[in-house]
Design goal:
This protein is mostly helical. 89% of the residues lie in helices and 0% in strands. The two termini are 14 Å apart.
């Protein structure tokens, strides 16, 4: 009976290690705020790059389709437009990224908690068998 329980627990632990173990342990090395900050930092960086490239493409498209003069451009409205678009994008990505990173962190913590409980249970079963 105890051998079958040990085999089942060891199988569950092996499956966890194969699927989520490395990522969850990597997540567990950081505090929650640090993990969220790190995830949002990369998201903001990539979103900023995409928005800037998109705005440049939009301005180049407008330049070629509306016969604008390059030397008589009014840059102030264009820069305010770019700042607004970039700000809204970063704010929305920060909110969405924070929610997602918090959820990912909590799921990883729950899985690790279950993993350590199974390890403890396996240890108790092994010590009980050694006593017998």
């Amino acid at each position: 009976m105890a051998d079958s329980r040990r085999i089942i627990i060891m199988s569950q632990l092996a499956v966890y290690d194969k699927r989520h173990g490395l990522a969850d342990k990597k997540t567990d090395r950081l505090f929650r705020r640090d993990y969220i900050y790190r995830q949002n930092m990369w998201t903001r960086l990539y979103a900023s790059i995409v928005v800037i490239i998109g705005l440049i493409c939009y301005w180049v498209y407008r330049y070629f389709t509306t016969d604008m003069d390059l030397f008589n451009l009014d840059l102030e409205p264009m820069l305010w437009q770019a700042a607004f678009v970039l700000g809204v994008t970063l704010l929305s990505f920060t909110v969405i990224g924070t929610i997602k990173a918090t959820t990912d962190y909590q799921v990883a913590q729950r899985r690790l908690k279950r993993y350590y409980k199974l390890l403890d249970y396996l240890d108790r079963i092994s010590t009980e068998e050694e006593r017998k």
